């Protein structure tokens, strides 16, 4: 395993649609392991393949509350979504920044795991938000397109929360 360089907003690769994974090759397995290591090292709760420069439909998620985790999603598709939540959202491709984004409060998705076994997953709250955020990356979209109000520094938000 190795960490890979996280692409930063402005890098053209983050605006491109990703291709489906046809089969899990040793190279794809290595990519998934590297994505997990990169996500954990960066302290993120999710990472999509284009963020490490690979235009494949793969995301990894670990929001710290679900079982089992980490969640590996290959060729993920959202089947259902409902409700609404508005909260601060950030991205490893725009470090130190965050902004208010409205997402569904519930999503049901279908994906394949790292062994190409198909499964369905349901998520609420942070997990639902994270699934939506990461899947957007696979179509070349970032949360900044959906931010309500200003994108601001994470530190300012933390101070505000402590004061509140
Ligand atoms: Ni992101």
Layout of helices and strands:
Blueprint: H1 26-42, E1 46-48, E2 58-61, E3 71-82, E4 85-89, E5 97-103, E6 106-112, E7 118-124, H2 125-138, E8 148-153, H3 154-163
Antiparallel strand pairs: 1-2, 2-3, 3-6, 4-5, 5-8, 6-7
Bound molecules: nickel (II) ion.
Task: Give a written overview of the molecule.
The chain is an alpha+beta fold and 164 residues long. The chain contains three helices and eight strands, in the order H-E-E-E-E-E-E-E-H-E-H. It has helices spanning 26-42, 125-138, 154-163, and strands at 46-48, 58-61, 71-82, 85-89, 97-103, 106-112, 118-124, 148-153. The strands form two sheets. The protein has a five-stranded antiparallel sheet, sandwiched between helices. A three-stranded antiparallel sheet has the order 4-5-8. Strand 4 and strand 5 form a beta hairpin. The longest helix is centred in the first third of the chain and has 17 residues, at 26-42. The mean pLDDT is 94. The chain binds nickel (II) ion (NI).
């Amino acid at each position: 395993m190795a960490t890979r360089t996280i692409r930063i907003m402005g890098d053209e690769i983050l605006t491109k649609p990703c291709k489906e994974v046809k089969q899990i090759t040793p190279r794809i397995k290595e990519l998934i392991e590297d994505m997990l290591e990169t996500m954990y090292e960066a302290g993120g709760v999710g990472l999509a393949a284009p963020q490490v420069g690979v235009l494949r439909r793969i995301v990894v998620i670990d929001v710290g509350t679900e079982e089992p985790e980490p969640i590996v999603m290959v060729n993920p598709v959202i089947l259902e979504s409902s409700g609404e939540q508005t909260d601060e959202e950030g991205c490893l491709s725009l470090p130190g920044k965050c902004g208010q984004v409205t997402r569904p409060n519930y999503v049901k998705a279908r994906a394949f795991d790292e062994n190409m076994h198909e499964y369905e997953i349901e998520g609420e709250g942070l997990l639902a938000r994270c699934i939506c955020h990461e899947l957007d990356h696979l179509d070349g979209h970032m949360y900044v397109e959906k931010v309500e109000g200003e994108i601001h520094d994470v530190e300012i938000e933390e101070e505000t929360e402590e004061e509140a």
